[in-house]
Amino acid sequence: MIRRFFSNNVIKARKFMYVKDFRGEPTAANFDLVEENLPALKDGEVLAQAEYLSVDPYMRPYMMSYKAPCLMIGGQMAKIVDSKNAEFPVDSTIFGQFGWRSHTVLNPTEVQKNAFRDYYILPKYGNLPSSLGLGYLGMPGNTVYFGFLELCQPKEGETVVVTGAAGAVGTLVGQVAKLKGCRIVGFAGSDEKCKWLETELGFDKTINYKTKNLYRQLKDAAPKGIDCYFDNVGGEISSLIFSQMNDYGRISVCGAISSYNTEIPKVPAVQTAFVFKQLKMEGFLVWRYTDRWMEGIDQVAKWIQEGKVKYNETVTDGFENTPQAFIDMLNGKNFGKAVVKV
């Protein structure tokens, strides 16, 4: 399988370059697919061949801090197909923050591990697919395990609301909330997604945020008020949710998808609700929990294996289709985690 990428000891790799700054929604014009030659392995190095690439909302705002042209960022699950490092043997499955590229050469003993968990070998979890290392058994899963459980600290009988409910993070927030004995209300972008969340994942109520009378719909869905809110979108919907929270409610801020493609986002005034309801809101980056990283992955894997949590992936075939998968994900076309099968 790997032989076709070698020619006279040269490894042929493909990669997507970020060549034009985002202005509004990303388009194919923001990326350029190029080929490069990688050198033959030296002692201590490994060659990782991408199997699945991740497309995530955070990539949109993060790339604005980079100067084009540069490699498009992103995590991937890869197979080590050649190795001169005994600690990283051939056929190992590795997670790497290698960006949108087909092959990567690195020396694991020299690369500095940092808070972003640049790379690690994913343990084997029975018959679970390696792609889950980009979803429930990776950064999105730990986002929920730590960002929801540690910050919101949901208690049995409480009402939890999550926005972006049909995505990789939102689907797991809902299921973990149910495991904790909570009532879960989710916001999603279509009636089809709402029905799926209720019938397949056990959400108590869902609301299509593109419909009217959201305030009344939320009142009906959460008649006892809201105790915990996991915020993936920000904006006006979050302001509406704040207004219906109970005293001492807890809010975990994971993202602000509603403003990622907007140059000047609307910022509703929320201070009144925070003062009079004595709310607590905390933003977080999941990398703060890097020293406990495998704790979260092991727990979510156990929930899946015990049948307590279901996972869903939207898989796009073909490395060349990665930009379109990214665009589709930002437009809410995915059910669960969006990945690209290389």
Briefly summarize what is shown.
Helices cover 24% and strands 27% of the residues. It has 342 residues and is α/β, with parallel strands linked by helices. The model is unreliable at 1-7 and 112-116 (pLDDT under 50).
Question: Would you write up a description of this structure?
Answer:
It is an enzyme of class 1 (oxidoreductase). It holds the Pfam family ADH_N_2. One of its GO terms (cellular component) is cytoplasm. The chain is α/β, with parallel strands linked by helices. The chain folds into 2 domains: 158 residues, Medium-chain alcohol dehydrogenases, catalytic domain (Quinone Oxidoreductase, Chain A, domain 1, Alpha-Beta Complex); 148 residues, 3-Layer(aba) Sandwich (Rossmann fold), CATH 3.40.50. It has 9 helices and 17 strands. Strands 4, 6, 7, 8, 9, 16 and 17 form a 7-stranded mixed sheet that branches. Strand 16, helix 9 and strand 17 form a beta-alpha-beta unit. Helix 2 crosses helix 3 and helix 2 packs across helix 8. The longest helix has 13 residues. The two termini are 13 Å apart. The N terminus is likely disordered.
